[in-house]
Hints:
Oligomer: heterodimer
Distance between the termini of chain A: 23 Å
Strand order of the largest sheet of chain A: 1-2
Largest sheet of chain A: 2 strands, antiparallel
Structural class of chain B: alpha/beta
Shape of chain B: globular
Bound molecules: adenosine-5'-triphosphate, magnesium ion
Number of helices of chain A: 14
Largest interface: A-B, 25 and 34 residues
CATH architecture of the domain at 3-88 and 171-254 in chain B: 3-Layer(aba) Sandwich
Structural class of chain A: mainly alpha
Amino acid sequence: MKKNTRLITMLICLAAALLLPLGISSHYNQVLLNQTVVYIIVALGLNFTMGLSGSFDFSTAAIFGLGSYTTGLLTTKLGINPWIGVVAAIGMGAVVGLVLGFPSLRLRGIYFVLATLGFLEIVRQLLSNMTWLTGGTNGVANIPALEIFGFSLGESRNFYYVALLFLVIGIAISYRIIYSKWGRTLIAIKDNEIAVDGCGIDKASFKIKAYIIGSCFTAFAGSLNAHLFQFIHPADFTFDFTVRFIMMLMLGGLGTIPGCVIGGIVVTILPEMLKFLGEYYWLAFSALMLVMMMFIPYGFASIPDVIRKKVKRAGGKD
Amino acid sequence: MEDILRVENLSKQFGGLKAVDQFSMNVQRNAIHALIGPNGAGKTTITNLICGEIQQDSGEILFQGESLGTLKVFERARKGIGRTYQNIRLFDTLTVLENMTVAAKVEHSYGMLRTIFSYKSSQMEKKERRDKAMDILKYIGLEHLANEHVRGLPYGNRKILEIGRALVTEPSLLLLDEPAAGLNPSERRRLMDIIYKIHEDQISVFMIEHNMDVIMTISDRITVLNFGKKIAEGTPKEIQNNEEVITAYLGNRFKKQGA
Ligand SMILES: Nc1ncnc2c1ncn2[C@@H]1O[C@H](COP(=O)(O)OP(=O)(O)OP(=O)(O)O)[C@@H](O)[C@H]1O
Ligand SMILES: [Mg+2]
């Protein structure tokens, strides 16, 4: 019964997502929508580390950036097929996840947080200063659009549908992981690390693999982003970009897939809707975030549960 | 009988405090072995040394004849040392069943990629974990709570569940740190039945406990600790009549419980 409700909800959301572009006339809004889909994929990636096992991870912007630059440089400098660039970006995500996660996730929690912070800064510096490779602060321009069966994804509605397909696959993978031993153990790690050790579980290996797959999601989304805008710039991949995704998870609900989706939508689209406030829009957005987090500390995804409990309590007597 | 655990001249100091001082002890296979002593005597510290949460300053711990050296906690657990904690450590946001499935030792344990891409494998592992977890939940009498969230569980059930979670890892030695603390008499009865069952299933039990009823009823052997040092060891009868133990620990206890 509950499983059916979930399936129906998912199908309705999917149908809405499929129909959504029909109601959008401006190019700007369609691109915003595309960006939202890409960002939700990142949120799903971050969810594996921060959402499930609960460790703060500031590397998102760096890994997203590396994914963007991997495909951006391969396609512009070597003329490689964009899809191969995308695959290479995923590989880059895996390598970074391993190289950064393997040493730091074996140590106490804080070392990983510091490693991701340090990495964020290193990547930013490298992207801006290794001019011979990255074009420095000029960024990388003229990145080709993706293409599929002769349809150019430079056309933003085409991009949307393909990205949406990737998002659905990303959600399916997330479900598999979250509801398997992997997800449950990562949550157990968040609940009580010492007890996880005591159960004979090599928790570091769980955290490392979660970080690697999360990094693959993020780098993949980064590469989509590069082909979406066809231009990338090092200043796009800084600390505040990371914070965006942390906000998405906190606002949507840590560790849950609906949380990633809702958080991704709200944090990407809400600031745009507030742009009429002129220079105060970011301030207003931050204030709104703060208020929402105060009133729904477990995020939007927790609202149905809260309501269910309230209803139960109200009718609990009989 | 053969020893499952040998502790030799174990010492551990915290700052200037000798929490464990040249402590030696053998736990026989299939025995229920109790460790008693006043608060702060170093009992929990000994448990933490055995399972590897902290490392000794000197001395050696041999499990099934093999030195544990600097093995990590999870490695020792895999070798067969299961434990519970003085302050319960459960996975509070998971359900009762999930607390068990996470810990379950299973034959088919698949990697992340296989879990993602093979529905069949992933379901098979899930089923094996669930079956195993349900078996142990039945064993400890908590199967009716399988889908409850742990956070809302009453204290007594939490303590019992923690034992179940240790059992599902298939330990050959189970370390229990004050399992009866905070339980009411009927829960205590249930606990003793479970410990007895565990004992009959050939799992060695090493138990720290303050409750003398429990200790004197079910243990085969008792070690008494005071200020990190072993002051006595023997059968319940021998310990009850040991002068030094009565002065250091038992005397006032029996008075308290007799009143
Ligand atoms: N990590 C630690 N750092 C510093 N001191 C510690 C640490 N762990 C234990 N101690 C000290 O070592 C001594 C022994 O502690 P332990 O917890 O082993 O006692 P216990 O016998 O289990 O007592 P209780 O019956 O109260 O549980 C105490 O004085 C305690 O304060
Ligand atoms: Mg103790």
